[in-house]
Design goal:
Blueprint lengths: L17 E5 L20 E6 L9 E4 L5 E4 L2 H12 L4 E8 L10 E7 L1
Antiparallel strand pairs: 1-6, 2-3, 2-5, 3-4, 5-6
Amino acid sequence: MPGIPVPESALPPRAARVFRATVHGLPFGDRTRHLTRIRSGEPLMLLPDPPDSPIECVWVHLMAGDVVGHLPNEICSWLGPWMRRGGRARIRTLRVGDESVPSWKRLLVEVSCG
């Protein structure tokens, strides 16, 4: 909740409370079509892969449920397990680029842990 301090034990390892990341995997499955619906400041959803998944990903979804892409692997490796243990993370859009921006830089988000 905003305004309530988050104890250090509630934060994932190797993480800042708030960080920025790009969303990867946009070109697959025609996910780029969703970018026209996303506005700066808009909240999105984060969902980690199940524990038995061969790849550790944390997926970015529109609030309506559509998959947009995933966070970079370096972040997924610690954020996914932490979220499955009960950690909470919020995500919001900072910037949406057009087709002149490489796909892996097109959607910039801010993630808040705790």
